[in-house]
Amino acid sequence: MAKPDFEGVARRVAKGPAPEWLVGALEQCSLWTGKDKSDPRLKHTVAEMVKAIDLLVRFLPAFEVGLKGTDPELPKLLAMLSREKKNLQRALRPERGRRPDMQRAICAAVIIEAWKLVHGNAPYRSDAFEQACADYWQACGGKPSGDDVLEGWRRAIERAKLLDNQWISGVFQFYERGQNGR
After folding, report:
1. How much is the pLDDT for 98?
2. Which helix (H) or strand (E) holds 106?
3. Beta-carbon contacts of residue 23 (< 8 Å; ≥ 6 apart)
4. Would you list the domain boundaries of the chain?
5. What does the pLDDT read at residue 52?
6. DSSP string over 44-101
7. Residue 25: per-residue pLDDT
8. Is the pLDDT at 37 greater than 60, yes or no?
9. 116 — phi, psi (to 5°)?
10. Which of 13, 21, 145, 155 has the smallest CB count inside 10 Å?
11. CA 182/CA 176 separation, integer angstroms
């Protein structure tokens, strides 16, 4: 059997022909799904994000003042960027001990958000939904394992339901608006 791809996952989620935006959104979210944090491409991307935050924190205040005066929201933005930089730097540290399998939870969260956008809600305990999670995991580069039997996805789905998935729904809405011209 061939390894699942993003188009096949999108068809499974859509239960038929998939909109093009769904394929693009699934592919975009794949950076954070199915890969071990030791993947050099992921580490490089996170390191580049840290550098970008450093540039923003260093130059944004001067740029803002030079253009139009200081934006009252700027201190909040700089504080948020500093927090995110710390989170990203934490992601670059080597793991110690057994870690929860967050990549699988993020994988399930992506399928949850895709399913909600296409159908209005997600059938968390259906074979089709759990198979979409397993297929997306493999499409993103995750290795199949004994946990890929459908019941093995239930724990990841339960963890995904507890996550703040706004960033994922934002990616899907961005892609959907882009295709629909909104």
Report:
1. 47
2. helix 102-119
3. 6, 7, 10
4. 6-36+100-180, 40-92
5. 92
6. HHHHHHHHHHHHHHHHHHHHHHHHHS--TTHHHHHHHHHHHHHHHHHHHSPP-SPPP-
7. 92
8. no
9. -60, -45
10. 145
11. 8
Six token digits for residue 115:
């399913």
Look at the block and give the residue holding tokens 């699942």: 4
Residue 134: strand, helix, or coil: helix
The one-letter code for the residue type at 179 is Q
- Determine contact, residues 143/95, Cβ cutoff 8 Å: no
3-state helix/strand/coil string of 140-170: CCCCCCHHHCHHHHHHHHHHHHHCCCHHHHH
How much is the pTM?
A: 0.69
Longest dimension (CA), the chain: 60
Assess whether pLDDT exceeds 90 at residue 169: no
Burial 136-173 (b: 16+ CB within 10 A, else e): bbbbbbbeeeeebeeeebeebbebbeeeebeebbebbe
Closest to 150 (Cα-Cα) out of 177, 170, 123: 123
**pLDDT for position 13:** 95
Half-sphere exposure of 150 (CA within 13 A, CB side): 9
Q: How many CB atoms lie within 10 A of CB 33?
A: 24
